[in-house]
Amino acid sequence: MPDLPADFTLLQVTPELETGGAEQTTIDVAHAVVAQGGKALVATKGGRMAARLEADGGRLAQMPAQSKNPLVMLGNAARLIDLIKREKVSLVHARSRAPAFSALWAAHATKVPFVATYHGVYNAKSDLKRWYNAVMTKGDLVIANSEYTRQHVIKEHGVAPEKVVAIPRGVDLSRFEPGVVPASRIEALRKAWGVAPDERRLKVLLAGRLTRWKGQGLMVEAMKILKDRGENRILLLLAGDDQGRKGYRAELEAAIAAAGLQDAVKLVGHCDDMPAAYLLADLAIAPSLEPEAFGRTAVEPQVMGRPVLASDHGATRETVSPAETGWLAPPGDAQAWAEALLHACEIGAAGRQTMGLAARTRARRLYSVDAMCEATLKVYARILGARVLGLERSA
Asked: So what's the pLDDT on residue 134?
């Protein structure tokens, strides 16, 4: 880990600490700063992950950071200015657009370095939205969660390439570790999902909330193509919550029934135990119709030793190494996906195991929480060093 000043105090600003990748990253980086002997504050509305932050030695500064109301955002800026002065904050790190405005104003007012993480490829259909998104680029440096996101930031906002650093999201290697998942957890999922103990078909897992762009409908179409060709070697497991999208779920159920795929495609609902789910499966797929800014569900199964078949766009071009750790297929092309699934069958269990081992080795090296935290702390050290140099030059 890079050396930070002995009195280093980090203030991260994020809307809530309920659930999600950006929230988990906030907790992980706070933990790394505390482990280095620094102080870690998080300004946020709060949420179920706040207890974990405090257990790790971080501190919560509660405020309505999730609000997009301009008056509340101004109030948050005043609260942050007070917090920065009181706690002698060394650096402010924003993780979402609305609170980034308050954080940027507060950082400018107190002359404290500011950095923001671009966690997704935000759509901008108007100049106003582009201006709103650009707040994430107004700091000393921008952190992007993949090289794909980095290139988007440079092109979309005209930011100098040296000001944008790609740091992929980290996976918790202690949780996503095959050796710590007992057989009883895999067995419990198998029973809950109605997978027979002697199931010989290739068990293919698509993990992701039920929303059209995640590609569940495309995969039902691919399974129909295979069925029409007399192929029945695949069992498709769709794991994810509909999050109120009842219409899309009903549409999927109707398509499955119309194609006579009730025995080959299972909608298994939300899954709390993803490590066990990946071990139950033989292959994980990520057939998103739109590019993923990072794509956790293409990385986690690789850490668990499973090959991945993903859409050939976005950050999955970085996270999946074709023919080594998995395959890439054309987005939205049901015929191509059907062929790719057949190929995964054809290489056999031994071929998939070899790819799975390569996937695990590569993913553990590139996408660990430790690697992410070390890279983030290097960015902090770089910003602080540049600030000191700038002050010396102006003196």
From this structure: 87
Mean pLDDT of 208-214: 91
Q: What is the mean pLDDT of residues 319-347?
A: 97
- In what helix (H) or strand (E) does residue 77 lie, and over which residues does it extend? helix 70-87
Q: How far apart are CA 63 and CA 73, in angstroms?
A: 10
pLDDT in tens, 266-317: 999 989 899 999 999 999 999 999 999 888 899 999 999 999 999 999 999 9
Q: Which residue has the tokens 């179920």?
A: 48
Structure tokens of 387?
């600030």
CA distance 146 to 288: 17
For residues 249 and 210, give the distance between their C-alpha atoms in angstroms, rounded to a whole number: 7
Task: Count Cα atoms within 13 angstroms, Cβ side, for 193.
Answer: 33
Edge-to-edge strands of the sheet including 39-44? 59-62, 39-44, 9-13, 91-94, 114-118, 141-144, 164-166
pLDDT of residue 394: 55
Residues paired with 327 in a beta bridge: 309
Q: How far apart are the first and last CA of the chain?
A: 31
CA–CA separation, 344 vs 358, rounded Å? 16
Q: What is the CA radius of gyration of the chain?
A: 23
Q: What's the order of all strands across the beta sheet hosting 202-207?
A: 265-269, 234-239, 202-207, 283-286, 308-311, 326-329
The model's pTM is 0.86
CB atoms within 10 A of CB 298: 29
- Report DSSP letters for 240-251, one per residue: ---TT-HHHHHH
Which helix or strand (DSSP H or E) is residue 106 part of? helix 97-110
For the packed helices 348-366 and 296-303, what is the interaxial angle rounded to 10 degrees?
110
* Cβ partners under 8 Å of residue 142, min gap 6: 115, 116, 117, 118, 136, 153, 159, 163, 164, 165
Does residue 127 sit in helix, strand or coil?
helix
What are the Cα distances from residue 239, in Å, to 13, 119, 210, 259? 32, 24, 8, 20
- The confidence score (pLDDT) of residue 126 equals 85
